[in-house]
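Protein Record: Sequence and Backbone Structure Tokens
======================================================
Tokens: labelled as protein backbone structure tokens, with as many entries as the chain has residues.
Question of interest: how does this chain fold, as expressed in backbone structure tokens?

___
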Amino acid sequence: MSPRRVDPVLTERRRDALIKAGYAEILEKGVPGLTLDAVVARAGTSKGGALHYFRTKDKLLFAVLDWLLAELDRTLGDIARSDAPPRARLSSEIEVLFHSAEVNRKLYLVLFDYVAVATRTGLYRQRVRAFLDACLRRDAAMIEEGVRRREFRRIDPHAAASTLRALVDGYCLQWLMGSDETPLEIFRERCKAALGTLLRNP
């Protein structure tokens, strides 16, 4: 009897379904509230099938984080590689990072849960750090290009990139923890204005 052939497309589809179901569960219940049984039910698969892809809850949790950061990294990377001038690329990045109230609330609720885990767990900390380092390198490269093209004043690109990251995360945290009276767009414009002041070429 010949062994059953594995369909790689189907395998990847089932794995993705579990990851996305895991993301939805974390969004509703937080990282501590996630259970494999709930993920299996949401994905419409079997417990045995789920364990084939993720032997433990922790492996699934890490896969969700890896998928989420990879999606963000891909989107931001596409912006950084575009042919637009550096100033326009940085503006587009801020537009994406302050996408909409619904998207940002979901994203940051999940990310903050993972940051709490990452502060205590080496593997998660390494993954989050790798994502942040990639963001800083991309932003620094765009700022350095802008300085060369005289779009921006002479400034340390790495320090400016770190400031940009602090502005984005800080304003998103203020919005998330604040009242519902101030729309996300106000914080987006504050972020753009602060970055413009930092980089402005007199």
Q: What stands out?
A: The longest helix spans residues 122-148. The chain has a mean pLDDT of 91.
